[in-house]
Amino acid sequence: MSDAITPAPVRRTIAGWPIAHVVATILVLAGLLWAAWATRLLLDISKRQIVSVSLSTLVGDFVAAESRNGGTPEQTASRTAAYLAAINRSVSALGADGTTVLVTEATLGKSVPDRTSQVRAEVKRALEGGHDPR
Fold it and tell me: Do residues 60 and 103 both lie within one domain?
């Protein structure tokens, strides 16, 4: 028989803590951070809304007003381009905060708020703001 002494297994530690405990603590902290992030994201999503805008009504009203207005084809083309650009800016502004904007003709019911009057007012303000009062 041999009197050889077998070395005791070396226990690895980080700052006196077993590695398994350190790794478990890091995983728990990572899980808590992920849960906080996911909760914040879900709460942000729940605040979003869906609205509708009746583009056909807006454009139809504009075409009717332009037909009574008269003017040269160049003036009509210029006013039409300005009107459509103002509609585009207004609808884009509605969706800037994450709001989903549907065209009324694409919705099947009245389950979403209609923002047509808001867009009409913003377009009117935009066109009047750029209008030369001479």
Answer: yes
